[in-house]
Amino acid sequence: MYIRRVLIRNIRSIAELEWRPADKGPGWHVILGDNGSGKSSFLRSVALALVGPKEAVAARQDWNTWLRSGEDSGFVRIDLVPDIEYDSFSGRGRTGNTNVLSASVRLDRVEESGLEVELEKRVTPKRVAPERHVWGTGAGWFSAAFGPFRRFTGGDKEAERSFLSNPKLGAHISVFGENVALTEGLYWLRELNYKKLEHSPEGGLLRRLKQFVNQEGFLSHSIKLKDVSSRGVEFEDANGFPVSVEELSDGYRSVLSMTFELIRQLGRHYSEERIFDDQNLRVTVPGVVMVDEIDAHLHPTWQKKVGFWLTEHFPNFQFIVTTHSPLICQASVKGSIFLLPRPGTEEEGRILKGADRDRLVYGDILDAYSTEAFGAGVTRSPEAHKMQERLATLNVKELKHGISAEEKAEQQRLRAAFPTSSHLQNAL
Is 255 helix (H, G, I), strand (E, B) or coil? Predict the structure, then answer.
């Protein structure tokens, strides 16, 4: 299953938005925008449409805050393309044309009080009901979503119960709020270890997972997953010393908590043999995975490679991620980059194309910032601009009248500080 189109109206800060990428299958799809532009709202809205109103009730959201201020109704609709090899319909009846399916949720303010907002299914005529596909119980239709606070500990136990009580919602629950930790992944690893000791077929997934995580290029500085036992999950650091998963840095925990939970969710849907490709240790099943602030806690070198690694090792996944880092965009060779409108403007969200897209995907940091996709005037500090103006003044003075030894020394210091800045002496 892949998402072909998203329509959102009157949800939080989003008045009206259409997301329709050219690449409608697997790939790396980036959502950009200023703080407050609606990046998290976009992912939450899509997650709502993926799980449906019945499951979403357990997300413990204040739906009154979801409707855009001053509006009485809103909706989110997603158009889906199924994978006939993996995605099965539930229930009875004819399915008709299944090339494109839809799922839509409507939010309405209750007239009696004017304070409460209700969720309900929004019917799409002549389409198979979502209860038979993405909201149903048939095999496949895999999706998951992760919020920006990806961690193993510190969550609300009550909120985390949805992992077990509402498994479809559980695969998306962390994107709906900050109070959910991905603790379930650690319990699951220990359970797999017990299964392995019992020689249960499920125990084989632990061996595959360990090989998958320890592949070259995933965890920086050669950190390796060494052991899973009743004592916990243990890694070996770059110096060969043991360290528990809870003691790893935020960057490692952010990536590992997401990876463990993602594989755990896949294990709910598919057998071990169907998840992994034996030869290349890749996850070969299709699906949709959304990650809010994928760059959170990651060093720039890791930001640069995380998208490439994930799309290589999950080649049939459609990743939809938000970010404030231009480095994340470089993996969108196959995918898209969508820029949300600036808050308080009448702009429309748009897929970046042409030179702007090329600068983000193939250019360096300065090329990316020149697109203004991350705002204007972000490459230099105000003090740096003053220093550049002083350098330009010295360059002109040197050509016209000459400069003193003291000014020459100042000029050299400034040129060393701005080696990429052109100056008149070299230009002439």
Answer: helix
**Of 220, 213, 195, 217, which is closest to residue 283 (Cα–Cα)?**
213
Count Cβ atoms below 10 Å from residue 93 Cβ, excluding itself: 9
List residues bridging with 287 in a β-sheet: 317
223 shares a domain with 345? no
The Cα angle at residue 141 between residues 307 and 103, in degrees rounded to 5: 100
Q: Domain range spanning residue 400?
A: 382-427
371 touches 337 (CB < 8 A): no
In tens, the pLDDT along 232-271 reads 899 998 888 999 999 989 898 999 999 999 999 998 888 8
Structural domains of the chain, count: 3
Residues 211 and 316 in one domain: no
Residues 345 and 394 in one domain: no
* Length of the chain as a residue count: 428
- Provide the 3-class DSSP secondary structure of residue 81: strand
- Residues 241, 208 within the same domain: yes
Which two three-digit tokens encode residue 162? 């949805």
